């Protein structure tokens, strides 16, 4: 076998020469034709193998590394010169390039339509979220204990109840002060959080405070109930000798004549089950200066005196003006 292999290798090397058959005729070899065959057939066979193995151009088809190694081995391990193979592009890149090159503006139109569709979906989801938020706000308004709507109603009813009480005692109506209302809200939060009554020291501002337990919204005091409770203190006030009395100081502040502004707030602390009501007045009442109670707190209820009640109504609704006298020039 070794001798046969050497002979085949020698024949293979000699076949590369074009003058091989002229120099060495067929009958010069002592090898049987049945063992080796025709030299011309061997040349064509090895030439095809040589051409097939030397082909290095990339055709775009996937090469089989096992087949490549097998063919190199069949060639006797002779290294063959190779040329640089171009790097193939990815399929996704080819697809994008083909689409963009073949369709041009259509490809951009498709991308823009996809972006427009996603934007519409996002807008629809945002609109749905906004509608849900509006629905939640409407639901919260129905449950007024969680919104500022109930506090606004309380403030309005508190102002109306104050003015009704003052009218019964012949005094003018109070005006609403947003500044005092904000101060009252801050103080009401402080009282409800601490759970005890604290009196602020505000110059020129009077106060009325309530702090009580509240477990449900139905137990929250209204503005009308607060003023009715304070007005009941009138039974402890001495109208014949008006002076300061700790048992009726809230009543005297409500009907104090020189007071012109009111700011009220109510705050419910659900954690402590405590509700605080704060009313601030300006100018402050309950002054201990001589003659202040006599001039600011009426001597009796106006409802018991029809004439005084009528005078108060006329003063509130009718403005009487004195005509100016004409100046005659001489």
Automatic annotation (TrEMBL):
User: What start and end residues bound the annotated signal peptide?
Assistant: 1-17
Q: What GO cellular component entries does it have? A: extracellular space
Q: Which residues form the SCP domain?
A: 153-289
Task: List where Basic and acidic residues composition bias occurs.
Answer: 56-72
Q: Region Disordered: which residues?
A: 56-81
PANTHER family, per the entry: CYSTEINE-RICH SECRETORY PROTEIN-RELATED (PTHR10334)
- What name does UniProt use for this protein? SCP domain-containing protein
Its taxonomic path starts at: Eukaryota, Metazoa, Ecdysozoa, Nematoda, Chromadorea
